[in-house]
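chain and backbone:
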Amino acid sequence: MTVSRTICLGFLAVITVGTLLLMLPFSTTAGGWNDLVTALFTSTSAVCVTGLVVVDTGTYYSFWGQLFILLLIQVGGLGYMTATTFLLLILGRRFGLREKLAIQQSLDTPGISGVIQLVRSIIAVTLLFELTGTFAMIPVFASDYGLDNSIWLALFHSISAYNNAGFGLFPDNMIRYATSVPINLIIPVLIIFGGIGYQVNMEIYLWIRDRCLMRRERAVFPLNFKIVTSTTVFLLIVGTIAIFLTEFDNPGTLGSFSFGEKVIVAWFQGVVPRTAGFNSIDYGKMTTAGLFITIALMFIGASPGSTGGGIKTTTFRILFSCTKSVLQGKEEVLCYQRQIPVMLIMKAVGVVFGSIMTAVGSTMLITLSDPEFDFIQVLFEAVSAFATVGLSTGITASVSVAAKLVLILTMYVGRVGVLLFVAAILGDSSPSVVNYPEENLLIG
């Protein structure tokens, strides 16, 4: 039982428990036993913080069903190892080297020192953002649904947003609040901070604390912080502008709004492909160019150590810097005057190649099982599932059972990570005692 197998089987166990809970009669508004595939798909989507749904969450599931989904989102967003560690800390259990290694690999941290303290910090930061988002959204929903209902709606959407899940309780998701300034500020902020990673959030907190305490020490941010924040800001700006330009005259999306409203809606749609599947427009009516831009943003995804998926911003930045170095004729890859280790470059290449193969394989299988759908719709669905985004052109509920099973597996692989999933199957590799000779070959 290797560390990678422990993490993968842990996610499977949570998905299984969630499926059983969502199948119970009191989990649905109809009061009958839930369909197995529907319960399995919803549980997987919640644990993998994806947001793809085959039924309307707000009307199909009862309060208890919605509560189960919310708990699955929370466990999935924190990560199996983080949630388990938190429960064991409450019970007072001591952690050995093996448990610390599992937590370190799950959080993708450089070492095992301080991982228990990091888990405590993650829980505290998560609760802070989720409760703040809840209180901020209560006045927005109270005007339409009353105070009692608004508390539950605000709590559900706050947790869903911070964990980059994208589950909503409204039949049209966030389309009814497309031009609401508070919603277009609160939810994107939760998505962004949930997607930049726990370590970056802690760096921001420490910087703010030092400024408030009037400490004049020069702040030296690590390379991970610089890459994550700069790449995130770049993608948010580029995504917003690209959606604004491609959908400006489209009557099915932005065409019916005023100029100011178009900016607001484009901003929201530029944020949510960062693996949070909320939508304030109908993606089924987007232009092909808009869909391709969204696919690219979804594929890149969020940042390491976050609640989001995709190949991650750091992987994208490393490969971008690698390409830049090749074009400049350099033999080393530099970023912010720091040299990127060869092992990280190899890992980035492996992540991208494995991710592309997963998305291509998922698209091919769904196309074979459901040939009636357009290719762009199937590709959009496959990338959305792999990157744990949850955006859809509206075909999720209409695909066959075989296609739903493919999407379930794709969501699972995207959540645990391609490299971790393969390592769980193949087992830990043993170091080689043989050094082979080098030989050149043609590239490009």
Summary: The radius of gyration is 22 Å. The chain has a mean pLDDT of 87. The chain has 17 helices and two strands.
